[in-house]
Design goal:
Layout: H1 2-12, E1 14-18, H2 23-35, E2 40-44, H3 50-61, E3 66-70, H4 75-83, E4 88-90, H5 96-105, E5 109-113, H6 116-124, E6 130-132, H7 135-138, H8 140-146, E7 155-158, H9 166-171, E8 176-179, H10 181-184, H11 186-191, H12 194-210
Parallel strand pairs: 1-2, 1-8, 2-3, 3-4, 4-5, 5-6, 6-7, 7-8
Helix pairs in contact: 2-3, 2-12
Length: 211
């Protein structure tokens, strides 16, 4: 399962984050994004209907979607998410119990961290990829600086990422980005523009990688 996650992340480079997306809309939005080439999506466990939404997405897409659970802050959340169909977990900070659960199940955990100390703790607890959060306020230069002492670090930039800055984070060395409101927020949904934004993000990441 970890290998499949790695292949998907390093191919697509964009994870869509569903937070506060109404349950009745989530499958339609996910289908739009999937058609635009975004095959990695996470549902925030902070949403009251997160498990129901994950079950809906799992029923709709099955193995054609790399479905994850975000904001996983406890082992019980992790267990419930996997039962609902999650194939990877995302934490907002270093969560030893979730990292241990991932190791036991062979399940990828995208571990949240910010400082060098937290990043090293995440790696020591088995996180192959580290989620730098919140990346937006610190900017791409922070990612670039981290890769000086840690050249093998696999970073996903999260928090304040959109079409306007995703490429800069990838050029700085991030292997990918995770995008929430700029891709699945209410303004995008009301305009019916999620597909165009998703295609723009994918192209921005591809172009930045070539550069």
């Amino acid at each position: 399962m970890s290998e499949a996650f790695s292949e998907a992340l390093e191919d697509v480079g964009v994870i869509a984050i569903f937070r506060a997306v109404p349950a009745e809309e989530i499958v339609e939005v996910a289908r739009t994004l999937h058609d635009a080439g975004i095959t990695l999506m996470e549902v925030a466990m902070s949403d009251p209907q997160a498990l129901e939404e994950m079950r809906s997405l799992h029923r709709e897409f099955g193995s054609n979607l790399m479905l994850g659970a975000g904001t996983v802050t406890s082992r019980s959340f992790a267990e419930a998410a996997v039962e609902a169909g999650a194939r990877f977990l995302v934490t907002p900070h270093v969560v030893p119990s979730v990292n241990a659960f991932g190791g036991e199940r062979g399940l990828p955990v995208l571990g949240g961290a910010l400082t060098p100390t937290e990043i090293m703790a995440a790696g020591e607890q088995g996180n192959e990829y580290v989620k730098i959060f919140p990346a937006g306020p610190l900017g791409p230069a922070y990612i670039h600086a981290l890769l000086g002492p840690y050249p093998d670090l696999k970073v996903v930039a999260v928090g304040g990422i959109g079409s306007d800055n995703a490429a800069a984070f990838v050029r700085a060395g991030a292997v990918g980005v995770a995008v929430g409101s700029a891709l699945t927020g209410s303004a995008i949904r009301e305009r019916g523009d999620a597909g165009n934004v998703a295609r723009d993000l994918r192209e921005a990441v591809r172009t930045a990688r070539r550069a």
